[in-house]
Batch of 4 targets.
Target 1
Amino acid sequence: MMKVAVIGVGSMGKNHARIYADLPNARLVGVADANESAAHTIAERYRTTPYTDFRTLLDTEKPDAVSIVTPTVEHLSVAQAVIEQGIHLLIEKPIAFRVDEARQIIALAGEAGVKLMVGHIERFNPAIQALKSRLAADELGRVFQIDARRQGPFPARVKDVGVVIDLAVHDLDVMRYLTGAAVRRVFAETERRIHSTYEDLLEGLVRFDDGTVGTLAINWLTPTKIRELVVTGEKGMFRADYLTQDLYFYENATATAGSWDALRILRGVSEGRMVRYVVRKQEPLRAELEAFIAAVENDTPPPVSGEDGLQALILAQALVESGQKHTVVQMKNAEK
């Protein structure tokens, strides 16, 4: 049974602890948080040992793997200490506060030979996994556009980054995951309406090397939570709802009428059938942590690598820069 621990048991970290405590092939040996009350509350709830100093946890419990769920600005320092002890690590997104810090974490993990996974949880949403498999089976044909809408109320817990780094990074990663393509350029309009320090509204454009256009409508200003992804292509449109884990297909009847590929585009678009696929519901975080544990147990590459986390952060930072400078940002050699 693998010994695991959680560093940072705030709003997200406490869920890592909950799931680890329930996994049959893992044993939660401790949790750490600078907030003593939080550490003791979670430790008592899941029958483990609380620590206020994560280094003491590492020295005392010697876990095989840990989740790092601290504020983003602390990711590098915590990851360094974990890696120095040869412990495998899952870092909640974003991988780091700055791109150079992300590169440093990746290099350290590689040198130490430990597994590094980044917690881009939306990849493990059953609706997104179903969408990925259907795109891979060419059920949509050529993809034209991906539209992400991720909106909701301002979360008081987030103090160190704006809506681009905290939320848009999810959709940037999902877009890369679905297309398998590099990004050529980005453009963003950002605003700060309620958040006192960082942007809380983003309207973004992403141009991929394969010709796909991505759009992002992200904010902390909407009074109800919306999490939706729409993928439009030759044969119609997929719509994935992250919250309900539903996947819908809206058919382009013209493109499925048996005409030659070249004529499908020329004949245009017409409304066809709508299909709601049966998607087996599952908690994405549990699937993510199970995948992390499996990668460590089986000595296989984690499904979301440090490089994946780095590329999502690079794109998010480029959108922030574009919003500040009101200009297109070219992503030449970003994937190298």
Target 2
Amino acid sequence: MVSMRRAAILLNSSARSVTDSTIRELGELVRAHRLEAEIIPVTGDSLATSARLAVESACTALVAAGGDGTVSTVADVAIAHDLALGVLPLGTLNHFARDARIPSDLDAAVATLACGEAVAIDVGEVNGRIFLNNSSLGMYPRMLWEREQQTRHGRQKWTALALAALRVWQEDRRISVTIRGCEYRRAVSTPFVFIGNNEYAIEDGRIDTRPALDGGRLQVCIAPDAGRSRMARMVLSALAGRLGRFDGLEVTATSELTITGPARRVSVSLDGEFQIFESPLAYKTRPRALHVIVPKERAR
């Protein structure tokens, strides 16, 4: 069992699902489960700094309370300081918590912190930055950028995302890249390149959940033959944070790869967050680099 003495719970107070009542409820649950943990409300901009300050205060574990972006940011600090990561899924989609089999119910998730065990899982890395779920180029980063522009004009998150999806579909852009992996090379024009941290189950062309988080592989998906109708389905499914069902998906697995495009700077999404990187993009897996607290029965 992981020691939760002086654990730090980094609560993303800017998350849409987090309210004053959520903070009160979390405090009550921490006391009810007898956790010696400090709840630290933070905004997304100060999340990494607050996590590092908690480490300097000699906390024994870091807990990310928020969505996938929050979890990824806190995980980066946890890895750097060899601390276990706890997760309280308070975001919109919570893909990582689902794949790690962490309960979505807040009471059960707090109970996991109190009684769970730490398991070692892989993380993905691109140009020195980690990701827990997936990274992508092309369609999805473009949608995130468009959504950001819409929110700056005062539109709500889901309205902004819907307008961004419409804009991306209307533009029908493709990216031309060269992908080099272990025993793999592909020069291709595609609406997207999707890189999963471990392999997602694919049924009827739908990228779904990950059966394992410690397989030591990256999964690369492209759709070179996708036309506008398939693009429409992809854009709609991307609104839910994943790729949807369509034909023509090419999939391969590797432990590392390099992606080169025509531009010096590349738009990339990491766990649903928009980033800009210098090309080429060097991806690799870091096997069992992160310890995550999960329910005991699911740690076996």
Target 3
Amino acid sequence: MIRYLLLLVAAVAANPALSHKASDAYLTLERDGTSLRGQWDIALRDLDNAIGLDANGDGDITWGEVRARHADIAAYALQRLAVSSGGARCALSATTHSIDTHTDGAYAVMAFAGKCPVAGPTLSIDYRLFGGLDPQHRGLMNLIENGNSHSVVFSADSPQRTVGGDTAAPWAQFSTYLNEGVWHIWTGFDHILFLLSLLLPAVLVREHGRWRTSDSFRASFVEVAKVVTAFTVAHSITLSLAALSVVVLPSRLVESGIALSVLLAALNNLHPVVANGRWIAAFGFGLLHGFGFAGALHDLGLPAGSLALSLFGFNLGVEAGQLAIVVVFLPLAFLLRSTWAYRRMLFAGGSVAIAAIAVVWLVERALDMPLFDALAAGI
């Protein structure tokens, strides 16, 4: 079993999509009549995968290597973005290039300008960046028009959107942010592993220094409800404070703290310090996870016209995604709670695997060093 756990740890920790957030690009588009101005932030790691920025193959993409490929970056990106107004395509051209840092690494920043033949009431956007290369990639676009902003999300399944006009209605924004909340919790593997670490003991009872199976589904349900409620209340508080810029923490501190919370929650299953009050740990660490959720929300951008509703939608989406995990987990866990497979493999073995993954994440985030890449380079 240890062999399989080590393979799982290596597979999860070595995969950037699992140890960090999935591939996103950030597109800001401002419209004034027939004129367009935009900025497109694209991760260097994604561009390197698409067009090969690392000229000398040393694993380090320098400013000089990026600068030498400005024309190629512009051509690659703009060929995969079509903007139309009134049924006629708008001409787009790159103006300036720079580098910026997001929470997950360095990004090429391309400013561009555009001119549309007519000023239609809406814009039709066709977004195909990294099409065929990364089916998980998403484009997060913020449209600014008449002093108002609203957000839309492009994916492999939804590459075409119509924006502007009444598409910026508050309920349309609510729907967008609701979907984003669900997406974020389902792709936030650190949040999921933290939640699972707290849920694994819910169908067990700690007595006389040992774990035994719970005799009551109701008691297990109440335990899960306390954990989930505490986690929800806590991260809702800090998510709102951070999204509104009332309290802001450094992203490295937040991400490292989240990894530490996963590690401690998993270790607590193996050597319980808090056995019957896990809701307290859920609340305490939930405050930290809220700052992590806020980072994703900040990248998407909050529309000024429907800020409160969009914030509520995102938070509600996080809760919906979280509850979906609980609804699947709890009945199965209770059904299997007395079996060797649950007690030894899922509970004990799963906690060991989660702790090992969390250690890798903690080292990577605290030291800003991809641990498995460093190990591979030393072999």
Target 4
Amino acid sequence: MTFKSPLEEMSKKTPTQFWNDNCAPADIDFAMEHGGVGATTNPVIVGQVLEADLPGYKPAIQRLIAENPTATEDEIAWLLNEKMAVDGAERLYPVFERTQGKAGYISIQTNTKYYRNAEKITEQAVHFSTLAKNIMVKMPATATGIKVVEESTYRGVNVNATVSFTVPQALAVAEAIKRGMERRSAEGLDNSLLHPVCTIMVGRVEDWLREVAEAENIIVDPNALVMSGVAVFKNAYCIYKERGYQTRLLSAACRHHHHWSEFIGGDVSMTIPPMWIRRFANSDITVENRMDTPVEPKLLAQLQKHFPDFNRAYEPDGMTPEEFDGYGATKRTLAQFFSGYDKMVSIVRGVMVGS
């Protein structure tokens, strides 16, 4: 069989899936041509998509404004968010049908500003889950978010836990989903349509440790930092396999080819930005099982010696749920999502006032 690219070969020959890391129609189409089976959004991504093609989205924004004459800019922004997710879901629906609901999802993210309010996140998650059959809902793996993961699962939401960087978070998410499913089973509810995922933002693990190294004048083998997120993800994957969790791991925040190539062969998903999808599609990287190859012990040892925050991320008991919100990568990412949301609203505001 001839494949268009290593991405397509991976998708056809291994259990490893990949998704497009935005909701732009052309990017989703390109990913699907090379074997992509999903897509995802967050406040930063939506703002970037709007900024890149505002002329294309402006009529839709104007239409929403006209149809909702008393709506605030925030309300219009969320209606637009929903529209972009529904449009992406429609594009991916053939994959959803072909795989009998096991793939073909687009993720829409709950409001970052709710990250401490379980009731509001849950309410929004349940609403989003009604927009299309192949909608997956993102919620943060914060202390509050873990409670929402269980409750949303119980209410039949396909969950994608995000703002997640560590093995302890991934385990807490899987256990919360397990509890939610057990509650459903106890009431005779069907779990066959639930295909939850837990994201580990591997590139943001690396970003954070680089920031720590800079601030604390730490020098290690550069490859140790490059492989830091990979090591966390592989450790979580091993534990998931041992415990038989139904939740699927998803890698995100791709920074270089190791955030793709090192996970080939695993029964996992990867969300990859369009730029990297195009680069990987044109690469000479071979499709072979690297998921089961551990990170070099000497690199792991350097990370464990010099970075307490790596150990907090890598060890299963490195943090309690009460500590998730205070982890450096969590605080950094929440701040960026707040900023991304503000940018998205400012674009809507500009159309609303005609600037």
